[in-house]
Amino acid sequence: MKSDDDDGTLFNEPTGETPVVSSTDSRVTITGAEIAADADETMIIDPTTLLPHWTDAPTGQVPIVVAREAADSDDPWSAIPAPAWREGEADWVAHEDQFDSAILAGEQREDTARPWEFAEPEELPVPDELVTDAPRPEPDRIQRTRRSISTNRLAGRAVRQSNDRNFARALVTGVVLAAVVSLVFKLGALPVAIMVLVVLGLAGAEAYAGFRSAGAHPATVLGIVAILTLGVAVYNKGLTSVGAVSVLLIIFGFVWYLNAGREVDVLDGLGATVFVYVWIGVIGSYALLFVAPRSFVDGHGLSYLFGAMVLTVANDSGAFIVGRQFGKRTLNKVLSPNKTLEGTAGGTIVTLAAGLLLLPLMSVWTRKAGLEAAVAISIVVPLGDLFESMVKRTIGVKDLGRLLPGHGGLLDRIDGLLFALPTMYYLCHVLKLG
User: Between 150 and 308, whose confidence is greater?
Assistant: First the structure.
């Protein structure tokens, strides 16, 4: 409040005088409050419970928060002692039966001890009878059909069968086959195509059986179906269908081995399936190109296919006869110890003679074309024989089948022809035959 004698400032300097509150009473009166001196009851303070002043020195006393004795009760939880402040030795002795601190440092593990209630020794003693210098045993591994790489790459293969061929039996079988094939060719292109499909299917079955004997797991049914499908497709559409059928074989082959067990080597199985398909199906499908109506005019493809078969038979027969009589030097000792240089030379001579004398008997062949074809066939047919010998040597069999008495399997008779078919097909286009 501003006084009358104020000099104009809001706050004045303190004067140090005590204001007079009341003329009758020197006490400050608060409305609604009682005077402490006029109270009827006085608060009684117990000195024993009075907390010491914060400035006093500590006494070292700790309050006891848990009773020393458990109360008698039917409640099972009442038997469990509550936490207690341990002030002296008596407190530790009183609760010895409730906690055994020895299990924390015991040397022997108790059966009822929990993992965190003991410490494992740093090093366990080993009995003297268990200390040996024996080498560490190798872990057991699942056997696979794929052969491990070693010095002898043919180790572990099946044992080669003995040679039970008979020359008279082989001669009779050869004559019967020649008569049957000549009769089929007389019937026309469609019977020849059916005969080729049957031969390729049987040859594929023999090859797959040979791989199974070596421990592989080819998809035999899938492979044979692919070979026959390719043959029909090539007969109708030509070589453009090879790619489509091959892709389908890979896809269905993956599905075939999708649920194969661990004991099946998928790479060996699928590899054998595709290998036989290419070797017999793709290469053998060239025979169907010769008999397809759109490949050669006026059905001349039948004459070229028959000529390739004649030259192949001449080469095989000449090599067999001459090699049996005069063969001394081995052509390839590892792959085929029975094939000799003398037999190869004899087969070449017989093939050239057949090209000059037999092929010109057919109207589409001339002596020059027959001789040129004979030279080419005499080179590739021995390669086809060696190729099959390499396969048989690898899987460990002498013959891939016994369908033909004295000759072995059907594949043993068309191994050289498989290499002769594409050679003759492209040779006809180069020489512009037909």
Answer: 308
For residue 426, the one-letter residue type is: Y
Write down the pLDDT at residue 378: 94
Q: What is the pLDDT of residue 381?
A: 94
First-to-last C-alpha distance (Å) of the chain:
138
The type of residue at 207 is: A
pLDDT at site 311: 95
pLDDT tens for 265-320 read: 888 889 999 999 999 999 999 999 999 988 887 778 899 999 999 999 999 999 98
One-letter amino acid at 232 equals: V
Q: Which sequence spans correspond to the domains of the chain?
A: 181-295, 299-434
Give residue-wise pLDDT tens across range 173-191: 888 888 999 999 999 899 9
| Average pLDDT of span 383-388 | 91
Mean of the pLDDT values across residues 30-49? 59
pLDDT at position 260, please?
A: 75
- Are 227 and 281 contacting, i.e. CB atoms less than 8 angstroms apart? yes
The 3-state secondary structure of the chain reads CCCCCCCCCCCCCCCCCCCCCCCCCCCCCCCCCCCHHHCCCCCCCCCCCCCCCCCCCCCCCCCCCCCCCCCCCCCHHHHCCCCCCCCCHHHHHHCHHHCCHHHHCCCCCCCCCCHHHCCCCCCCCCCHHHCCCCCCCCCCCCCCCCCCCCCCCCCCCCCCCCCCCCHHHHHHHHHHHHHHHHHHHHHCHHHHHHHHHHHHHHHHHHHHHHHHHCCCCCCHHHHHHHHHHHHHHHHHHCCCHHHHHHHHHHHHHHHHCCCCCCCCCHHHHHHHHHHHHHHHHHHHCHHHHHHCCCCCHHHHHHHHHHHHHHHHHHHHHHHHHHHHHHCCCEEECCCEEEEEHHHHHHHHHHHHHHHHHCHHHCCCCCHHHHHHHHHHHHHHHHHHHHHHHHHHHHHCCCCCCCCECCCECCHHHHHHHHHHHHHHHHHHHHCCCC
Distance CA 285, CA 379 (A): 21
Chain-centroid distance, C-alpha 98: 61
Residue 270's alpha-carbon distances to 170, 184, 249, 277, in angstroms, are 35, 35, 10, 11
Q: Which tokens hold the place of 268?
A: 């060996």
